[in-house]
Design brief:
The structure holds 2 protein chains of 2 kinds. Chain A is an alpha/beta fold. Chain A contains 19 helices and 6 strands. Chain A folds into 2 domains: 108 residues, Response regulator (Rossmann fold), CATH 3.40.50; 284 residues, ABC transporter involved in vitamin B12 uptake, BtuC, CATH 1.10.3470. In chain A, helix 8 packs across helix 17 and helix 9 packs across helix 16. The longest helix of chain A is centred in the middle third of the chain and has 28 residues. Chain A is elongated. By secondary structure, chain B is an alpha/beta fold. The longest helix of chain B is centred in the N-terminal third of the chain and has 24 residues. The N and C termini of chain B lie far apart (58 Å). The chains are: A alpha/beta, B alpha/beta. Chains A and B meet through helix 2, helix 5, helix 6, strand 5 and helix 8 of A and helix 1, helix 2, strand 2, helix 4 and helix 5 of B.
């Protein structure tokens, strides 16, 4: 029973194994030294200093001006002072600030036993030749917390980073999945992202009170922008259903129209006169440190999954894509279903544009270029068939993550841009190949 | 069926793995004293800094333009000389993509970030993130002079000076007769605005003290590209059949202008001054199709960036902007240029 359930899952979501393998692969190749910081590291380093320089060491603490390292510096100073040591200075900032303090200390002829710092600080060249540059200090030793090894890829902040990066593409892919399951395609989503981003920011700038815009007016602006995209989708849907123009042509035309509109509205410039609070949607993280955009993505996927697998409309979408004529004969109102798919696709593209504008705190007509291709790639990697009738929402989510993991992993492993394109292309091809092989009995 | 799926899976992993080793080898280890494991004595770890000084993360506007490719290549080579490993990625003029790349750099804890922003407004939030993480940010070619962001320095061509040199070349080429000239602009780019400003300033000064007046008859959008340059030049020839000179703000638009002149049979009557010194432009200068170019030095920009990173890390205070002067490149220079066959 369990076995058959597992194997069903296997065949439906085979891509999840590719994703898992990719994660393992990138975890292995991105293992590198991590420098611990925070209170634990400070205690450990204080112990090390005492063991090397006795109970009354003369220490200079140097850290960068960022929360983690500041906490480290404060804890270290406390530990050393408590043990009877002398902290001659606590530098928080850039190499320049460190040099200033070193110059001051050597002018005062103060001798130092050690300079305690974090790992990134220890690489500063200002400490490269202390003996020669600051002889008065008596050649202090540079000490930092003992590093540990851990994959960069698996750090919590990187995993959040990946999900946040893919949120827009994943959300837009929800609509694309529906369209592709009906046997169509929507090439206009990239341009709709730009249109929504420009519209939302422009409305805030012109009518919402610009930098003083309230949350309410910002929400309205975003809703208007998303609705406008929905109208574009409705127009595409009408062209496809009423005039029977192939979706490829209609949405290609709308791609140009929407992109052009975005450029006209924004006059080719980016629109940035919007309040700081606008970034709440794209960069805020109110629940458990999960970014709001990611939460929204998860909720939308949940809803879309239910729609596609449990509701009548979902079954109709599959039916229309599987065999349009049969669906029509069995009483499905094919036109309405198609209309729904294109409007939904445009609406989520609009939402994606609003999120992107929020992430970047500005709207520009250049946003979203080529995104239609990434979105289609995510859907196809997720197992949907371009000939329609097949595909799963959760598969698309996995597909989107596969693409994000590959891109992020390659950035982390220093793969340069040209190679990244080649690898991404090959991986998409390989993923689809596996899927095809798996389905061919 | 199962077996074939496995084989395909293995194949795809091999593809991915294929890029692994090479990528690892050019990034030995980002951390100083990288070879020492967690168990090694702390003394050993402390005596670091000699082998690898860390990684420089570079995100350029695009790598399709050879200009940026040269900048990237020179950051890599100059960085290697000084013990840095470097990763160069292309923002592909997509600011969202560039933001993601910078975020990946921050997670990777690079020692410095170099970028030429795809959009100086939309890139602000992510530069602020890098600032908050304590990672120094430098810009190359394209500035980000926005409030609220901390940039160590900006390395760029002295575009204003280059525009002045272009005007010198124009005055030299037109000689005693003077005449009407047109400017092929690319208004969106701040760098091009500076070029035109420098150009106009010298022409105005020249007109004030000389009898051979040069009249800037029109300023057209040349799009910085061949096709747009061609159209704009055709239009300007319609408006001013007696045009004697064209200043194009880069090589592609200059070459577009040349094509239009050849088409109209006026190639011998009108002088073109370009900008940049891309290989194609230099070749055109050698063949006498373009009179001269103030040329930029992207290689120097790459070297200067690494120099700035090192100076910053040594604790020096850097000027907000480091400008690299252009040099006027005429047919005689092209004839002596070993790069041109």
């Amino acid at each position: 029973m369990l076995k058959s359930l597992l194997s069903r899952w296997f065949s439906e979501y085979g891509m999840i194994f590719v994703l898992a393998l990719l994660c393992v692969f990138f975890s292995v190749v991105t293992v590198s030294e991590q420098s611990p910081s925070g209170e634990g590291a400070a205690k450990q380093l204080a112990g090390l200093i005492q063991s090397q320089f006795g109970s009354k060491p003369r220490v200079l603490i140097v850290v960068r001006d960022q929360p983690e390292e500041l906490a480290f510096a404060a804890a270290l100073e406390r530990e050393i002072s408590a043990a009877g040591g002398q902290v001659l200075g606590n530098v928080k900032g850039e190499p320049r600030d460190a040099r200033e303090v070193l110059v001051k200390l050597s002018a005062a002829n103060a001798s130092l036993d050690t300079i305690a710092c974090t790992q990134p600080v220890s690489a500063w060249l200002v400490f490269a030749d202390l003996e020669k540059d600051f002889p008065a200090l008596g050649n202090p030793r540079l000490l930092k917390p003992v590093p540990y090894r851990w994959p960069n890829f698996l750090k919590a902040e990187n995993l959040l980073n990946i999900t946040n990066q893919i949120a827009v593409i994943a959300i837009v892919a929800i609509g694309m999945t529906m369209v592709i399951i009906t046997g169509g395609i929507d090439l206009s989503v990239g341009s709709l992202i730009a249109l929504a981003a420009v519209l939302a920011t422009l409305l805030i700038r012109e009518f919402g009170g610009s930098l003083q815009a309230s949350a309410f007016s910002m929400t309205c602006a975003c809703l208007v922008a998303i609705t406008a995209c929905g109208c574009v989708g409705a127009f595409s849907g009408a062209m496809i259903t009423i005039f029977r123009i192939p979706p490829f042509i209609v949405t290609l035309a709308m791609m140009l129209v929407a992109s052009g509109l975005a450029y006209i509205l924004a006059q080719g410039q980016s629109v940035y006169q919007i309040p700081d609070s606008f970034v709440w949607l794209g960069r805020g993280a109110d629940v458990l440190g999960i970014p709001n955009a990611v939460l929204l993505m998860l909720v939308l996927y949940g809803a879309a999954h239910v729609l596609m697998s449990k509701m009548r409309l979902g079954r109709y979408i599959y039916a229309v894509g599987g065999n349009r004529e049969a669906a029509r004969l069995s009483g499905v109102r094919v036109e309405r279903v198609l209309m729904f798919a294109y409007v939904a696709s445009a609406l989520v593209a609009g939402l994606g544009g609003v999120i992107m504008a929020s992430q970047l705190k500005s709207g520009s007509p250049t946003y979203g270029s080529m995104y239609e291709l990434y979105v289609i790639a995510a859907v196809v990697v997720g197992g949907a068939s371009l000939s329609g009738g097949q595909g799963k929402m959760l598969g698309t989510l996995i597909g989107a993550f596969t693409i994000a993991v590959i891109q992020n992993g390659m950035n982390l492993t220093n793969v340069e841009s040209y190679t990244q394109k080649v690898v991404l292309g090959l991986v998409i091809l390989a993923a689809v190949l596996i899927d095809t092989v798996r389905h061919r009995k | 069926m199962q077996r074939r799926a496995l084989a395909a899976l293995a194949l795809s992993l091999m593809i991915v793995a294929g890029c692994g080793p090479s990528s690892n080898s050019n990034a030995p280890d980002a951390t100083p004293g990288g070879s020492a494991g967690a168990g090694a004595a702390p003394d050993q770890l402390a005596k670091s800094g000699a082998q690898s000084k860390g990684t420089i993360g570079v995100s350029l506007l695009t790598l399709e333009n050879p200009f940026f490719k040269v900048i990237g290549d020179n950051i890599v080579s100059a960085g290697k000389e000084h013990g840095y490993s470097t990763i160069v990625v292309s923002g592909d003029k997509d600011v969202a993509k560039q933001s993601n790349q910078i975020k990946d750099f921050i997670v990777k804890k690079v020692s410095a970030i170099v970028l030429s922003p795809c959009d100086s407004k939309s890139i602000i939030p992510v530069i602020q993130e890098a600032n908050a993480a304590g990672i120094p940010v430098l810009t190359v070619d394209i500035p980000c002079n926005e409030p609220g962001v901390k940039i160590v320095t900006q390395v760029a061509t002295d575009n204003f000076g280059g525009g002045r040199e272009a005007a010198d070349a124009m005055i030299e080429a037109l000689g005693e007769a003077g005449g009407k000239v047109a400017i092929l602009h690319f208004k969106q780019a701040e760098s091009c605005q500076l070029r035109v400003k420098g150009f106009r300033e010298v022409i105005d000064a020249h007109n004030a003290k000389s009898n051979s007046k040069i009249e800037i008859a029109m300023e057209l959008e040349g799009g910085g590209a061949k096709d747009m340059g061609l159209k704009a030049t055709e239009d300007s020839l319609q408006a001013h059949p007696d045009l004697r000179g064209i200043f194009a703000i880069n090589d592609p638009s200059a070459l577009g202008a040349r094509a239009a002149l050849e088409k109209a049979g006026k190639a011998e009557n009108v002088v073109i001054i370009g900008f940049d010194g891309q290989p194609e432009g230099k070749q055109a200068i050698k063949e006498g199709k373009i009179y001269a170019d103030p040329i930029q030095f992207p290689d120097q920009m790459g070297i200067k960036i690494v120099d700035a990173i090192i100076r910053h890390s040594k604790g020096e205070t850097l000027p907000g902007q480091m400008l690299i002067p252009t040099k006027l490149y005429r047919q005689a220079d092209a004839a002596a240029d070993p790069e041109l066959k």
